[in-house]
Design brief:
By secondary structure, the protein is an alpha+beta fold. The chain is built from 2 helices and 18 strands. The chain starts with a helix and ends with a helix.
Length: 238
Amino acid sequence: MENATYATLTRQSGLLREMQIVANNIANASTTGFRAEGVIFSEYVRALGPEAPSLSMATAAVRETMQSQGALDQTGGTFDLAVEGDGFFMVETPQGERLTRAGHFTPNADGDLVNADGYRVLDAGGAPVFVPQGVGQIGIAADGTISADGTPVGQIGLFLPTDLTGMAREGGVLFRADAGVEPALTGRMIQGFLEQSNVNPIAQITRMIEVQRAYELGQTFMDKEDERIRGVIKALGR
């Protein structure tokens, strides 16, 4: 296989990966707390020999999570929380602690604050947040402090991954932070609101069209290259 075909194949592979990510972004344009993704293309250059030109290939192995703020939607829910600025909630899953911006919470039968999947929400110390039952009006301050009739009863934690670029997505709105987390000092919580997806549907659809056209162009090149090679083989075989 010639170098031009190798280079085109790596490009096609990267474009296919980006198309899958863009399609997933569009599918989650209305998912609460969803963070859009993109891919980072890089160039891999290899020397072929002292007398030969180098070979350049494109790779798209790095996925980037967009950290822009999503729109805040007022719900009026007592335990609905949106993060304005930096920071993530932390929930306890069977696979370990995970970060999320989806703040639709509710107390379970045991009084633990849980998300829509039933995972317990954690406080700043990594312990489950407990909400006493039948204690009157619940208020949640910007720093996550939960008050019942004005008396503090707990505090929801807000965290930042030590390495934002190292976050790994697990499921639609959950992230794993292998490098660890630290307290988020600048973000604040807003009670009665939920953060919507930060996906820009128009921009994503536009990008999908661009990627599709680029992929079709590469496929056309490979078809033409295949025809050329077949022609050469046929001519040599006469």
